[in-house]
Design a protein that fits this description.
With about 450 residues, this protein is of the alpha/beta class. About 30% of the residues lie in helices and about 25% in strands. The protein is built from twelve helices and 21 strands. The strands form five sheets. Strands 1, 2, 3, 4, 5, 6 and 16 form a seven-stranded mixed β-sheet that branches. A five-stranded antiparallel β-sheet has the order 17-18-21-20-19, sandwiched between helices. The chain has a four-stranded parallel β-sheet with strand order 10-9-8-14, with helices on one face. Helix 1 runs parallel beside helix 8 (about 310-325).
Length: about 450
C-alpha cells in the first residue's frame, strides 16, 4: 500500500503548475493539481494573453490612418466596439483554460477545483477532503496590490481592466512598470485620454536607461500625458467622474483609475508557515536553486518565489522540478540572460545586461546604438522612431546585452537572445549577413561604438 495518496500535489493551475504536473505525470508520478479559480493562471486568464489581444486591438487605429499613405481608402470612419472585444477575448480565454485542463488529464493527472490548504507538511485539505502527498509544489502566483490611500477603492487593477462593462474615455494609470506602460498603450490606442503618473524619476525602473528615456519620449508623442515624480494622494467621487488629487494641488478627473503599483505573492492563509515553510517578509516563498523550500519535500515555482516573474520562467522552473524530482534527469533553470518584452506602444524587447549593470560587472564596455524612423513611416510621415542598442564587454568582445524599442522588438530580441545566450561576440554578429530591408539587420550592421564607457577605477 502506498504511503501517500499521491506522489505530487500541485497547488496552483497556472502555466508553471500545469507544466510541472504534466511532466511529472509523464514520468509516472501520481499527480493531483488543485486550482481555486480557473486553470491557466495569471498569464492565460488575466495577464499575458488577454493583454496581448488588447494590444492588437489598440494598434488598428494607427493602422487605419497609415493605410491612406499606401493608397487605401476606407469607405467610412472606423468605429471601435469595446463589448465585441470583451466578448471575443472571453471566448478565447475560455478555450485556452479548457486546453490547460485537458493537458493535465491527458497526461494522467487528477485535477481538483477548490482552494487547497496545507494541514501539515504532507497533508492538504480541499473541499472537505484531506489528501496526503509525498511532494508538494506551490505554484500559486501573485495578485496586484493597491496603495493604502483614501479613495483607493474607487480604482481598479489589471484584473478588473479586462472586464470593464464600458470603455473609459479618460484613464489615469498609476505606476511606471511594464503593466502600467502596456495599459497606457492599450487605452491610448483605443481612443482614451491617458494620464500616466509615476512616483519615480523615470518609467521602467531596472531597464536600460536609454530604453527608459526613449520610451518615455515615444509615448508622449502618441498622446499619453506623463507625470513623473507624481503620485495621487487620494481619490474622490465627483458626479460621474473620479478625481485624483496630487500633492501639488492639481487634480485629474477621469472615468477610471488603474493602479499598476506592484504585485504580491499568493501565499497567505495556505498553512505554509505552520508547515515550516520559510517566507520572506514580502510573503514570497524562499527557495534554493532547485526551487526547494525550507521543508525538503515542499517546492515552489513562479511568481510566488519572486525570482523572475515571467510565464516562460515559471514553465521552465516547473519543468526542471518535475524532471529532477520525478524523471531522474536533474537540471536547473538558469535565470541569466532571460529575454523580456514590454508590450507598450512602441514595444520594448531586452535581453542580458543594461549598460549600467554591465559597467558595474565588467568595468569597460563598447556601446553600439542607433535610432531611426522605420521604413514604413517614410510614407506615413509618422514621427515614431526605433531604438536599438548592443552592450559589449570590451575585454572579451562578448555581447552581454541587447535592447530595442520599436515595432516587432519582442520578435527580434527573441532571436538575438539566442546569440547572447550562446556567448556570441560582436565580431560574430558582424559576420552575419544582413537581411535587407528589415529593422533587425541593424543588430548586425552597427560597426562603430557610439560610446566606450569605463567604470571609475577599472583597469
Amino acid at each position: 500500500m502506498a504511503k501517500f495518496d499521491c506522489d505530487l500535489f500541485v497547488i496552483g493551475g497556472g502555466s508553471g503548475g500545469v507544466r510541472a504536473g504534466r511532466i511529472a505525470a509523464g514520468h509516472g508520478a501520481r499527480v493531483i493539481v488543485a486550482e481555486e479559480y480557473r486553470y491557466g493562471g495569471t498569464c492565460v486568464i488575466r495577464g499575458c494573453i488577454p493583454k496581448k489581444l488588447f494590444t492588437y486591438a489598440s494598434h488598428y487605429a494607427e493602422d487605419f490612418e497609415d493605410a491612406a499613405a499606401y493608397g487605401w481608402r476606407l469607405p467610412a470612419e472606423p468605429v471601435f466596439d469595446w463589448a465585441t472585444l470583451i466578448t471575443n477575448k472571453d471566448r478565447e480565454i475560455e478555450r485556452l483554460s479548457g486546453l490547460y485542463r485537458k493537458a493535465l488529464t491527458g497526461a494522467g493527472a487528477e485535477i481538483l477545483d477548490g482552494r487547497a490548504v496545507l494541514a501539515d507538511p504532507h497533508s492538504i485539505e480541499i473541499g472537505g477532503r484531506t489528501i496526503t502527498a509525498g511532494t508538494v509544489l506551490i505554484a500559486t502566483g501573485g495578485h496586484p496590490v493597491v496603495p493604502e490611500q483614501p479613495g483607493a477603492e474607487l480604482g481598479i487593477t489589471s484584473n478588473e481592466a479586462f472586464h470593464l462593462e464600458r470603455f473609459p474615455r479618460r484613464v489615469l494609470i498609476v505606476g511606471g512598470g511594464y503593466i502600467a506602460l502596456e495599459f497606457a498603450g492599450i487605452f491610448n490606442g483605443l481612443g482614451a485620454k491617458v494620464t500616466l503618473a509615476y512616483r519615480g524619476e523615470q518609467i521602467l525602473r531596472g531597464f536600460d536607461d536609454d530604453v527608459r528615456n526613449f520610451l518615455a519620449d515615444e509615448i508622449v508623442k502618441k498622446g499619453v500625458e506623463l507625470r513623473l515624480r507624481a503620485m495621487p494622494q487620494r481619490l474622490e467621487r465627483r458626479a460621474e467622474a473620479i478625481a485624483a488629487l496630487f500633492p501639488d494641488g492639481s487634480a485629474v478627473e477621469v472615468d477610471a483609475v488603474l493602479y499598476a503599483t506592484g504585485r504580491k505573492a499568493n501565499t497567505s492563509g495556505m498553512g505554509l508557515k505552520e508547515a515550516g515553510v520559510v517566507l520572506a517578509p514580502s510573503g514570497v516563498v524562499k527557495v534554493d536553486a532547485e526551487s526547494r523550500s525550507s521543508v525538503p519535500h515542499i517546492y515552489a515555482i513562479g511568481d510566488c518565489t519572486d525570482r523572475i516573474n515571467l510565464t516562460p520562467v515559471a514553465i521552465r522552473e516547473g519543468h526542471a522540478f518535475a524532471d529532477s524530482v520525478f524523471g531522474k534527469k536533474p537540471w536547473r533553470m538558469n535565470h541569466e540572460d532571460v529575454p523580456a518584452a514590454v508590450f507598450s506602444a512602441p514595444v520594448v524587447g531586452t535581453v542580458g545586461l543594461s549598460e549600467a549593470d554591465a559597467l558595474a560587472r565588467f568595468g569597460q564596455l563598447d556601446i553600439y546604438k542607433t535610432s531611426f524612423r522605420p521604413l514604413r513611416h517614410t510614407l506615413t510621415g509618422r514621427e515614431e522612431r526605433t531604438l536599438m542598442k548592443l552592450v559589449v564587454d570590451r575585454a572579451s568582445q562578448r555581447v552581454v546585452g541587447g535592447h530595442m524599442v520599436g515595432p516587432n522588438a519582442a520578435e527580434i530580441i527573441q532571436m538575438l537572445a539566442i546569440a547572447v545566450k550562446m556567448g556570441a561576440t560582436k565580431a560574430e554578429l558582424d559576420e552575419t549577413v544582413a537581411l535587407h530591408p528589415t529593422a533587425a539587420e541593424e543588430f548586425v550592421t552597427m560597426r562603430s561604438p557610439s560610446s566606450r564607457p569605463e567604470r571609475a577605477g577599472a583597469a
